[in-house]
Specification:
The protein is mainly beta. The protein is built from one helix and nine strands; from the N terminus they run H-E-E-E-E-E-E-E-E-E. It has an eight-stranded antiparallel barrel with strand order 1-2-3-4-5-6-7-9. Strand 1 and strand 2 form a beta hairpin.
Length: about 180
């Protein structure tokens, strides 16, 4: 059933792409903040930065956008800072409505760049999901708000395990 739903979703997306009359390319940069925590562990949150570049294609109401971002994540566990920095590659499918709004969802691939000395992480990459909303201000400026949730444990700390999760808000500028 899961494969059937995936097949139908991609089929609908590609059908809409081939029948569209209006296509546009999007290339730009974005920056913002994260409010990160570690699910599965009783930990405090970490506020960090995020930023990078994006490229996308819009086909009428549908769009696909790939990004390469730097993201500061982690939290505080047992009064010790747990800091993880990632290179993120989200691939978002977007549905635009009312000319300026969009809803977005898709997979996100994370690659560990830097970690706290407290952690001995053998896992340097992971897959998570992202969902959010966006706002297009004119043809150049965008605002995105997303919730990102890990699918697998990425932290091992004193025998406890946890997953990444964070909320990010970013502002972007499109060059095209």
């Amino acid at each position: 059933m899961k494969h059937l739903i995936t097949f139908l979703a991609f089929g609908f997306f590609f059908f809409s792409v081939t029948n569209s009359n209006s296509q546009s390319l999007n290339l730009g940069i974005k920056a913002g903040i994260n409010y990160a925590s570690i699910s599965g562990l009783e930990s405090d949150s970490r506020v960090g930065l995020t930023g990078g570049a994006f490229v996308g294609a819009r086909f009428n109401a549908f769009a696909v956008q790939a990004e390469v971002l730097f993201s500061q994540q982690g939290g505080e566990f047992n009064e010790k800072d747990v800091e993880m920095d990632y290179a993120l590659v989200p691939v978002m499918l977007k549905l635009h409505f009312l000319r300026i709004f969009n809803i977005q969802a898709g997979p996100q691939f994370s690659f560990l760049v830097n970690e706290s000395d407290l952690l001995n992480s053998e896992k340097t990459s992971s897959i998570s999901g992202a969902a959010g909303i966006g706002l297009n201000l004119g043809s150049k400026f965008i605002i995105d708000a997303r919730y990102n949730f890990g699918f697998s444990d990425t932290y091992t700390f004193n025998g406890a395990q946890g997953k990444d999760e964070f909320i990010s808000v970013s502002i972007g500028y499109s060059f095209l």
